[in-house]
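User: My collaborator sent over this chain with a note saying "see what the structure looks like." That's all I know about it. Can you take a look?
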Amino acid sequence: MTQASTLLRPSVTGPGPGARDRAQLPLPAAMGTALGLFLAARLLGVAALAAVSWAAGRHPLALLGRSWDSLWYLGIAAHGYGRTVHHNPTVVYSDLAFFPLYPALVRAATVLGPLSAGASGLIVSWTAAAVAACGIYAVGARLHGRAVGTALVLLWGLLPHSVVLSMAYTEPVLTAFAAWSLYALLTGRWVWAGALAALAGAARPNGFAVAAAVLATAAYEVWRQRGKVTHRLWTGAALAPAGWAGYVLWVGHRRGDLLGGYFEVQREWGSRFDFGRGSVHFIRHMLLHEDRFVSPMTMVIVAAAVVLYALLLADRAPLPLVVHSGVLLLVALGGSGFFESKPRFLLPAFPLLLPLARALVRTARARPGHATVVVAALAGLSFAYGAYLVVFAHTPL
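Assistant: Without extra context I'll predict from the sequence alone. Here is the result:
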């Protein structure tokens, strides 16, 4: 699946496909260009959402800062864990389902600054999204050159669900730690990779995908080197699952079931891993009995993610990217509950966009006008669909 020469240090075997554009522009300037394009995309998306929300008589900052899961995270930041809502006799919503890193960051921002909890949540998310964009650029540029790194960041900022990157949600935080952990793996920085993976695991339930990437890469390297590896590899591998496992065990201890307590909380939310049976049932019900826009769009996005993963495999992507994206895709496909949230769960799977980024760069070099039309179309879809999701759709993000 993955060549040994591209597993950790893909640039050591030769100049590579992106050597020309790597040599043309200093790294900080190139990363600044990518970040600038990402910020421009998200600012235009927020401006479109603001215009739509004002036309609908609603306040855009309130929608961005206090929608759906944001309210749970802000409650944890303000009061700690302990809130439970009984939706019906079989569905019980407990805030223990939400991992602690994001509310801790919001709490710190609220204590240290003059902003409200909602504004602090937005600041944390926006800052994390910018850090994530830089990390995504670093991964793309290392593998395929700076033009592809820039295109990768732009495509990530123009995904149909990229409006979530501008909201008080955890996906930007998870993606920031995931991107830099994967970059650390690609450059052989094992301790950094493990520490960042631990933080990713403390951000979201699917954050264990980053730890899986670290552990799989470490196992491959141990096998390839026949056990003769540095102690830094063992340290990084030990650190990687600590954040996710630590919170799961803490919830289990609190619920009186050390290994199963957290998963019982998820089941009470109606969320479990059932190998896709719940998703199939939902799709069947939607096709037969409903005519909504968000659910069919979700089906298209998830199907596109499967195709992109196949292309990533065909492209012989490095093992850490394959494992990280594969675990995120497996969780999205195999999990039941909150079907419309699946595209949001895939936002941290940015390596899926690498084949598209490479194709966009090739198109831009051969036919710049065609590439401009493609980017404009993606931007229009992203901005319009994002505004619809936040302002009008009555489905959980």
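A starting point for your reply to your collaborator: The mean pLDDT is 87.
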